[in-house]
Write the structure tokens for this entry.
Amino acid sequence: MTTTTINDIQITCEDQYVLAATCYQPKAALKGAVLIGPATGIKRQFYANFAQFLAEQGYGVLTYDNRGIAGSLNGKVKDSDATLQSWGQLDQPAALDQLMATFPDTRYHLVGHSAGGQLFGLLPNADRLTSIFNYACSSGRLWNMKLVHQAKAHFFMNFFIPVSNLLFGHTKSQWVGMGEPLPKQVARQWQVWCNGGGYVKTAFDKTIHQHWYDELTTPSMWVNAVDDYIANNANVQDMIAVSPNMPAETLTLTPKDHGLDEIGHMKFFSRKSQQLWQIPLEWLNKHSA
């Protein structure tokens, strides 16, 4: 017997762009509502099992595809004008508005995965969030990675992205196991931000002229894994530093401590890692009481 109603919906952004989304409605008494912010190039179905788990615990959940990705790609990917910045300034705020409209009069939480938890300071409505729980969210700074991983990261960021954009008009990230094909400006901005420090901070006073990173005082939890070479401890701290007034707790997971062979950058949300889901559940329960 299911304890969750699942519906695919559409979200209209401020600029009238339409996003594909999925709403998970619990049948139990509502404890709160959760927006799942997706990683770069990762479609919303990746989070379906985790979303259903939260809904079964009494949380309304919304997942969505960023513009230019999967169900939110209109036309050909090479013609998309999406940027990382537009994902934070237009897509995530609209998704949060939709979450609040669908589940009124409760507390709202962001569970962010990589980019989905890095862009929160671009949301004009970020002050409506009661808490933020981030997994594998960091600045992704290439120079903070161990040398053994830097070569791979530099190849993807500084060779594969520009060459793919030049040849195909977009980044064929699926060729190297990096999710959905990426609009060229998303990939280009990703490249620039990861070559700098503080990720989004790289664009302050350049393309980003208004943000709320300095103002937010939302309680936050930042979880990473020892086998994630991207969101290593140095890069997590580099990202946390962008929001100096936001209380931040950190936790670094070791796979064998949880009976797992790997967690890495992506496996936290896998059904095989569901024993880890008690960590965000305890966080949400604490901040929904």
